[in-house]
Fold this sequence. Notes:
The protein is mainly beta and 288 residues long. The protein has a domain at 175-285: Glucose Permease (Domain IIA), CATH 2.70.70.10. Helix content is 8%, strand content 24%. The protein has helices at 67-74, 78-84, 131-137; strands at 51-53, 56-60, 98-102, 175-177, 180-181, 187-188, 191-194, 200-202, 207-213, 221-226, 232-241, 248-249, 254-258, 268-275, 278-280. Strands 4, 7, 8, 9, 10, 11, 12, 13, 14 and 15 form a ten-stranded antiparallel sheet that branches. A hairpin with a 7-residue loop joins strand 9 (207-213) and strand 10 (221-226). The longest helix has 8 residues, at 67-74. The two termini are 22 Å apart.
Amino acid sequence: MALAPGLLLAACSTIPPPKARQPAQAQGARPQQPAQPVQRWQALPARADGAVVPGGRRHVVKRGETGIAIANAYKVPWGRIAAANGLDRESVLQVGQALFVPIGSNSPPKMAQAGTRPKPAAPAAGFELELDDLITGSAPARAGPAPARQGPRPVQPAAQAAVPALAWPVDGRVILSRHGPKAGGRVNDGVNIKTIRGAAVRAAAGGEVIYVGDAISGFGLMMLVRHPGGTVTAYAHLEDALAERGDRVERGQPIARAGSSGNVTEPQLHFQLRQGHRTLDPLPYLPR
């Protein structure tokens, strides 16, 4: 069962150009290796250099920074920063955008010395990275006009988008662990499907790849795909990725190879279905 015990935070510096779609392969075929290795989410730190303002700091977003990196720099949960700035799940940071970072003290966080080479950032003490943070805060800032700060929005019940028609992401049907509470207070937010190493992992529905990486060590190599309406599917414990962030994929298209990365010992796919901040049991939505 996939959990998230280990954390690695920060930013990705560039947005790779979209790749041409590859046609879906026959059931049971081993997917082809991509011509070049798929770029994974890079771990580079942001600097906590925002000006002191009442109640927190004013951080100006710089090229390549992500919401998660900014949150880690100030030791403030990304969800709290997003809410304070009226950012929704579809928002993408812009270079030059001013973010209000609500913190309990106006004393500046410790900063790296000017001119030093950025190194991979270790998790800030007490700072935890969740899968939902990767969905909303892992994209690097885009160049363009900086939007005006909107301020906090009243919390409104989100309209529930329809779950798209799903296909099984792997050929196997043996469920190693089901969705829901487990012994010892643990919870599985998805299902774990038994498979063989190197088997094709296919997009359960058409959409856009929004994350490929291993920032949450318990999941190993993981891919996130956002579908029309905002539903997101997650694919974890992968051996290799065949698509990268920004790629458009079709239902049934091979996007990865199954493996046993992360905190599992046998080949399997951890598959999640997410709507907003909720996780849904995928099994009722998969063909019988």
